[in-house]
Amino acid sequence: MSTTRIIGLLRKYNCLRTGLIIFVFFVFAAHKCDAARSYKIVIMPFRDYTKMSMEEMVPDVLRSLFMQSGYFEPVDREIIYETVSTEILSNMVKLEDVTKGAGGAWTTDKVDLMARLDTKTVKEFGRQLKADYVLKGNISLIGSTMRIDAELVGVKARKTLGSIAVEGSPEGLSSGILKELSYKITDFCRNLNAYDDALSILSLYNQGQYTFDVSEKKLKEILSVTNDAVGIRASLMVLYLSKIRKEENVLLEDKVIEEGLKILMHLDQNFDENILNVFSTSGIDPFDETARILSKRGDSEKAIEVYRKAISVYPMNIAGHYKELGLLYLNNGSEDKAIDAFGKSLATNRGNYEVNFALVSIFEKRDQPDKVRKHLEECIRYARNIEEIKYAKERLDGMDDQ
């Protein structure tokens, strides 16, 4: 493609900016993101090394694309430019150079000046506008290939979060290059914010602002762009368990089992603290719930397997998991294994009344009075109410009468 042809195309796109923005409304619709919240983004003028006056056209199209995605809330161009001239400290840029030209329009030289602001300056700029992100970049032409380099700056993080580059034919500027750039930036941010977004979705569901179906759809959409992130699977599992607590649902129980087993498998290979954050925030013990569903269905062996695996890879409620494991062993007639599991539960939480009383029953059956007495005394010490104290004391007094 000749240089003359490329220049002609670039000028054509610059003249048809409004048409491009209308066009991208349609091409981006299929990539619409269902986040729990939108993120405020400032898009600076891009530095244009092609000298084809594209400093504003590229940001304008990106603003439209981001707006249609539903994930970002782009700051209006005029607000950005006005803020540059009033909020940025004078030692960062010559304010007299950032003014409107004849007729109130921003001149190319002034826009170019803004495009050349460094990362430190745009971070302060983003803070002034109370944005989550600032996007800056440049446009270049290498032979017949157009390249756009973008730098995403995190305002709260106070650093560059990532750099993204796209290349392509100038003929595909809106439907190709800019569309690809907007996808990459959106997906990059979605991965960064995935767990916060997931927790927000669960919170809105619990508040009644989202229905179950909407919440599931949003979480699955996040899962699809985070490469099957296990923390998002954990959020889905919490959603299913929250629904089950309100009404029994066999199909959701199947989903809980499926997600629970997948998460356990992942934890066995690579521990992820995001799982702890999701489950601890919800107050739900997912693996206890999974095992209980399996036990209710008569699959005690699988339930035992879940508890054993959870104990080895999930550092929460270990005493409770050992207790439930002991009860399953006891129901299966495996008393020795039950005693071992109960002992490990008490090693973590000595004051569990139910575990101590289970051991009382086992040792009574085995005619081991010393152990019976020991655990009855523990029952009295750690009883939760008067009735429990009274019952354990009567049992202990009965031993003394023999």
Describe the structure in your own words.
The structure is a single chain. The protein is an alpha/beta fold and 402 residues long. The chain has three domains: 188 residues, 3-Layer(aba) Sandwich (Rossmann fold), CATH 3.40.50.10070; 89 residues; 86 residues, Tetratricopeptide repeat domain (Serine Threonine Protein Phosphatase 5, Tetratricopeptide repeat), CATH 1.25.40. The protein has 18 helices and six strands. Strands 1, 2, 3, 4, 5 and 6 form a six-stranded mixed sheet that branches. A hairpin with a 2-residue loop joins strand 4 and strand 5. The N terminus is likely disordered.
Q: What's the layout of helices and strands?
A:
Elements: H1 3-15, H2 17-27, E1 39-43, E2 47-48, H3 57-69, E3 72-74, H4 77-86, H5 108-115, H6 119-128, E4 133-142, E5 145-154, E6 159-168, H7 173-206, H8 212-225, H9 230-246, H10 250-269, H11 273-282, H12 286-296, H13 300-313, H14 318-331, H15 335-348, H16 353-365, H17 369-381, H18 386-401
Parallel strand pairs: 1-3, 1-4, 2-4
Antiparallel strand pairs: 4-5, 5-6
Helix pairs in contact: 2-3, 3-7, 7-8, 7-9, 8-9, 9-10, 9-11, 10-12, 10-13, 12-13, 13-14, 14-15, 15-16, 16-17, 17-18
